[in-house]
Specification:
Largest sheet: 3 strands, antiparallel
Helix content: 55-70%
Strand content: 5-15%
Shape: rod-shaped
Length: 201
């Protein structure tokens, strides 16, 4: 009898141990799972839940509104399967479903990324042009400075040449004037010839 009770106790303990092992989360389990959001509403043959159900309409399905019953708050629609029926008005909205918005948003995001990449490339090209322009400006500034220095040197040479030429002309003029003075003095002291007509008289 004692053996039976021991066997039962061991069996219960082993079952609890296995149950604890099954409930313990494993580290290898993947966490990249999501809860599905397959919501739907029922379509009735009339503007009330008392009418027969034609089928279900999934959330996000585009529909055409045919009429509204304000008393029962139901809307008559035609779905994408060309079925006509009534659904609760609170489930009908003008906002596009997320399932239909996702491709549009993804396309807009792709276009934005492409535009951003093109803008980045254009920005890099403009920066390269700016760097090239700055290098050209620096080179032209250096050349301009060199030309200005050359002009300064040439101007100084021209001014020096003008001064030398003026000194030369003054020297030559002085020499000519001195020669003229000496010639005048020399001519003054030359003996004069006597007039023969006076001698006969």
């Amino acid at each position: 009898m004692i053996r039976k009770w021991l066997f039962v106790a061991l069996f219960v303990c082993s079952c609890q141990a296995f149950a604890l092992q099954d409930n313990t989360p494993t580290q290898d389990a993947s966490s990249s799972h999501y809860i599905r959001d397959d919501l739907f509403i029922f379509m009735h043959t009339g503007p009330s839940r008392n009418y027969r159900i034609l089928g279900s309409v999934e959330a996000g399905t585009p529909v055409t509104v045919l009429s509204r019953d304000n008393e029962t708050d139901y809307t008559q629609i035609k779905d994408n399967q060309d079925r006509t029926g009534w659904v609760e008005s609170k489930f009908v909205t003008t906002t596009m479903s997320q399932s239909e918005q996702l491709p549009i948003i993804s396309e807009q995001l792709a276009d934005s990324q492409a535009a951003l990449q093109a803008a980045s490339q254009e920005n890099a090209r403009l920066r390269q042009q700016l760097n090239d322009a700055r290098q050209q400006v620096a080179q032209l500034s250096t050349e301009t400075q060199t030309q200005a220095e050359k002009v300064t040197r040439l101007t100084a040479k021209v001014e020096s040449a003008d001064k030398d030429e003026m000194v030369t002309w003054f020297t030559r003029g002085g020499m000519v004037a001195g020669a003229g003075i000496l010639l005048g003095v020399f001519l003054t002291y030359l003996p004069k010839k006597r007039n023969r007509s006076k001698e006969w008289m």
